[in-house]
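Case study 2.
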Amino acid sequence: MRILFCLLCFSTIVWAQKPVLELQMDNVKVTDTLSNHRKFTISYHIENLSDNQVSFYLDTKSIGSQATASLSFKPFYKIFQGNEYLNFEGIFNTREDKIYSEKSLLDFEHKMDSIFQAYQKSGGTNEDKFWVFSNQQLKASVITLQPKEKKGFSTTLIWNKKRYFKYFDNEFYLDEKEKHYIELSINLMKEELKAKLSKDEFQAIQNDKSFIKGWFTSNRVAIDFGQ
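Prediction:
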C-alpha cells in the first residue's frame, strides 16, 4: 500500500512539472552580405504543449543578449564556444538596433506622441508619455496559443566579423577554428512588469489562470563564426 501511495505521489509530481511551452530553434541561415558583415536569420517556434489556452507577454520583433536582456520581455540568446558560454554583449546588431540607430529623436518623439494621443482618445488617463508608450508596447506583445498550437517566428542578427571583445574586465575571442552554438531563452514575466501596467490591467492578468509565466530554453544550434 505504501509503495502504491509513493508511486501515485511521484506521478503527480512529474505531471505537475510537465512544461507548458516548448521553445525550439528550427534553423540558422547564413548570408555574407558584405565582406565585413555576416547576417544570421534565426527561425524558431513556440508550441503550447498543454490542453489549455495560454497567453503571455513576449516581444518577438528582435532578440537580445542574455548578458543584458534576460529581464526584458523579448527572447534572448546565449553563444557557446565549444561548451563554454561566452558571457558578454556586443557580438551582434539586431534588426531593432539598426532601425532605432537610423531614427532621429524627432521621429521617436513623433511616434510617442501618436501613441499617446491614441491612448487618450481611447479614454486613458495617465499623463506620463513614457509610461503610456511602454504600456502600449507591452500590451501589443501579448501572444495567445490554443491547446497544442505552434507559432513560428524569425529574427535577424548582424555580425561585423569582429573577434576580440572586452566586457567589463573580461576579454573574449571568437576563435574561427572552434565550433560555436546559439541557444535561445524566454523569461515570461507577470509581477516583474507591474510598473508597466495599470492597476486594473495587472489585476486582470493575476486573475487570469491562462496567463502564464516561466523560463523556457531552446535546443542549441550550430552558428558559423568561421572565416
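The longest helix spans residues 105-121.
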